[in-house]
Amino acid sequence: MSSSSNHNPSREAGFSLLELALVLVILGIIGGMGLPLLKARLSHSAVVKTRDNQEYVLQAIAAFVAKNRRFPCPAAPQGAGENYGVEPRERKCSGSKAEGIVPFRTLGISENFARDGFKRWMTYVVDSNLADKEHENNIHLVSGGRVIVYNEQEQPVIVDKSSKNPNFIALVLISHGESGTGAFVGNGQTTKIISEAASSHKRENYDGNFVFIESPGTDDVIRWESRDHFLKQYGGH
Fold it and tell me: What DSSP string describes 139-192?
């Protein structure tokens, strides 16, 4: 007895290839839709890491202040060898020397904490009077005001009209965000990552004039502390 069948192996193989192609196309579409979400998630994680590192640095600075009765000066971004990550030997940081990178070796912390969640150097700025060794026994009475921080309405974040020992910005820590525009290059260089497309607020945060703006119009992550709040919260005063 003979029998016949419509079974066609080549036809089945053809359908299987077509189905595989459709699956690959669908996966590609899904993957393309998911990339922006993945990028946003990674960016958010980097910002969270940045804020954690900023808090860690503040704790390290607090320990330094408790021991030395003054704030540390920034380290030179071009520092190398024994000067890498170390505050200036003269322990005085007037003028442009009041801006640099976190002096992580002076603070006794890992270099990783001196960088943000995007692996770039954070900028550290300090009011030079607070870092002056001559004021180490009375930093809670030191006057200042060289560093200014504005909110997004471009109003000062500290308005202290008291005539006696007014409060002021003690320090600023800045992550220059995902773009990195404004961050020190490091690697033995004094230069910063610059972009002509940067917004005016973004440029304000890296132009070296000690004026900074907290603005949603930038990707900067700014952490600042006033003298009085820092000494009360971190310094035990």
Answer: GGG------EEE-TTS-BS-----SSS---EEEEEEE-TTT-TT-EEETTEEEE
The pLDDT of residue 160 is 84
Spatial distance between the Cα atoms of 17 and 14, rounded to a whole number of angstroms: 5
Task: Note down the domain range covering 149.
Answer: 52-233
Q: Please check whether residue 233 is in contact with residue 193, taking contact to mean a CB–CB distance below 8 angstroms.
A: no
In a domain, 143, yes or no: yes
Q: Is residue 16 part of a domain?
A: no
Residues 6+ apart with CB under 8 A from 40: none
Q: What is the pTM of this model?
A: 0.82
Q: Is residue 208 part of a domain?
A: yes
C-alpha–C-alpha distance, residues 147 and 168, integer Å = 8
Q: What percent of the chain has pLDDT over 70?
A: 87
**Number of structural domains in the chain:** 1
Least confidently predicted of 29-38, 57-66, 86-95, 221-230: 29-38
191, containing H or E segment: strand 189-192
| Residue position matching structure tokens 């300090």 | 126
